[in-house]
Amino acid sequence: MRKPLIAGITALVLVPGVVTGVTASAADSAQQPETAASRPQGRSAIGLDGWQVLTTAQVKDDGTAVSKPGYPTRGWLKVKPDDAGAPGTEINALVQNGKCADVFYSDNMRKCFGYQSKRGPVVTKQFKDPWWFRTEFNPGFRPGKNAKLTIPGVVGEGDVWLNGTLVAGKDVVSGAYAGHTFDVTKLLRPGRNTLAVKMYPNDPNSMYTLDQADWAQIVPDNNTGLQFPPTLQLSDALSGDNAHVVQDNAADLSTSSLTAKVDVANDAGTPQTGEVTATVTPPGRDRPIVVRQNVTIPAHTKQTVTFTPAKFPQLKIVKPQVWWPYSMGAQPLYTLGTTVSQGGVVSTSSSETFGIRTVTSKLIGKSPALPDGARKFAINGRDFVFRGGGFAPDLFLRYDKADIAHQLALIKNMGLSGVRLEGHDMPADFYEQADRAGLLVLGGFLCCDAWQPEHPEKLTDRDYRIMHDSAYSIAQAERSHPSVITYGWSDNEPIPRQETETLSAFKAADWDVPVIASAEYKSTKTLGPSGEKEGPYDWVPPTYWYDSSTFDKTDPSRTNAGGAWGFASEQSAGHTVPTLDSLRRFLSPEEQAKLWQDPGYNQYHANYESGHGGYKFGTLYTLDESILRRYGKWDSLESYVESAQIANYENTRSQFEAFLAHANDKKNPSTGVVYWQLNKGWPTLLWALYNNDGDQPGAYFGAQKANKPLHALYTYDTGTVALSNLGAARQNGISVQAKVYDTAGKVLDDQTAPAVSLDSQGVATGLLKPKVPAETKAPAKAQVYFVELQVRQAGKVVDRNVYWMSTQKDVVDWAKTLQNPQATMSQYSDLTALRDLPKSQVGVTASTRPSRGPDGTDTATTVTVANTSKTSAVSFFLRADLRRSTDGSQLPAATWDDNDITLWPGQSQTLTVRYRAADLHGAAPTVSVDGFNTGRVVAPAGPHRDSQGAVPPVIEGTRE
What we know:
single chain; alpha+beta; 6-stranded antiparallel β-sheet; 8-stranded parallel β-sheet; globular
């Protein structure tokens, strides 16, 4: 057999950070002005017309045949690329071809594809063999052009073939983010070409790829495949690549000095002279800044062409438009365009956006708990408490722009600062959307697999090369995005050479935001202390979060010491129970029955870890036990789900509020919290604030309540009222009222703090101390009461927050709790009296109008809910849902500005829900309202009428 030709490696590139374009002919070039603002050209994604995918167990031929144009692919799986332009994974190929209907329903994925019980090598038979991913394409190549193929990383390892020739083997092509570029000029041909990648099974324990950790079920193919599209750059003798801007911003951001860089390669055998142009286009209508250089590049070399403010003074921008997180200001984006041309003909061009902003971090508040202090971030010099969640991509790594837009809208609607990405770096569009949305991204490597070496002595130079290449590619892809404010390691700090390779790659790529040594309280000599901590991950009571000093002195990592002090990089109270509508969409009747009848059942949609206690999260046992002990026994799926909504709401609200309340604690301040997790890439019962169908359960609205722009909160540790201002401007003329009620509706206390003012991102504590019933201890009978907080400004109520509390408090047994991901209790709070609340009546009016909103929404329905009871009965935990009139089905993607509210007689609250009219599927909108002690109320939500027109009727109901 003829020995395969292996093309040489010429550069390192990560495709997701490069804007794709098309190759222009000379005639096209002559007809268009050649400026950096022209459409990017020279680089295009490969495979946009589709891929053919099949296991090698069914393909007898080798790469020499498979990678030739015209190779017969009858019986192969035809795969459409996703919105990132990639074919995705092996299972994605099967699902696209109808091999598993409703793959996320019940345990269909297991039935269709098998089961993997732990991280490591693939064990399922059909995925243990390599798989072929092939595509035919016509890039418009012609003789005289140069061609460079970029493989932007693979999930697993791959042999790359082009037109019958091996370009590179799996010894080189390995790593999910390690991009490589190959000169394929001699292999490309005019007309049809074929790229084929032979993908070897992913093993996250030995490869620098990705996995789902313990977040969900392990996908049987280990996500083997291509999550980013290969690209091809066509050029003349000179070509440009790696264009970006380096910022030098004044401390007060009065000026920003920009240095533009672009790598220019000469692929010819003789020196070549050309013109390199960089254009910085400001947001709005300001005139672009255009700078040019003539360069001569020696044969077969690459040089970085730099445009500095010293040589081009116009690159020093006075009074730049500054990018801010959405809660602090606007998100103006500049554009850098570059061209490389010869003789007036553009060879290649590029275009990418960037934001002018400064990110800093520091360690503050040294204490016995945090001897080196806590990590605190600042944007443009403004300190803030980061509040976010751990983001998970689609379980099969399918990228959907519209879905991401909706998820980012949900995150902003919750009032969160942003997301943490652990080991799942995303396509360019994700970061571009985050830039425009003003959401922040904490990036980082995965834990618990090859990225966290357990036996450093076994690592080879190849391992370190992949680490270096991955870091360089990641930095290239993400450095220009103002949304990205840090990158770091997960549970463990890097070993010395791992750190050296990574930091040298970051430096070479002009990475300019903080790099953190660990998500736990660990350090390295180079990076210093991380100032972060992790855990808990399973149920703890709402009061747990208000702890400010408890930790295990024998554990320097401060893991599972999760009170509101320091920077918590990942923590939550564990399982989330979706709404009943959502549950019925993905759990089978048997699984639904198990959910309320068998707490020890390993739910497939939790994860693969059976049992409970310790790091086992496959059952809802610990959450269920807490609901039973605190709220009392349920007797149906409906009553179980209802109780779980209340419990989840109570806990997520407390977690976020505690980190705000303790932000100014001089002894041990809280600086940030990442809820673990924000979402999942499939329907889930574990760690989520919203479900993958868009469903917003109690956990979502508890988090949303805590993160309202101007918000009053009741602190569990001091029994006082605080006020937070998470908006962009100082707020004045605020009053805060606190009322205490018993379960019969009697007002036990009523206090008001008038004339409060508060700076942006500020927290004022100790405004009021409501008089609440005295604490009791079992076996004394507990009393349940409510604390209602209202914030008024300019005569209007701008925030309402209601707590349900017991005189019998939750008491954590800290000696048994520390070092564990869940709490052991010496006493549970007794809230069972809520089940004896008197029946209450509610009235509902709703109207609908066209209204453009985020995420492409075009319709808004306003819903006014009123407690119309003739007695003093409270209407507790009222949940509104938008439904289709035809069948009563819920619109899960409809986004509410508030929900799960509590009202006393005579009170009303207006809610707004935004959605796309097309999601009604032609039906009229209706609104249902359910409460803990009311019946279901359903009201039509017809078109809005003015004061002269009709309004929808008030419909009253009581709990049956």
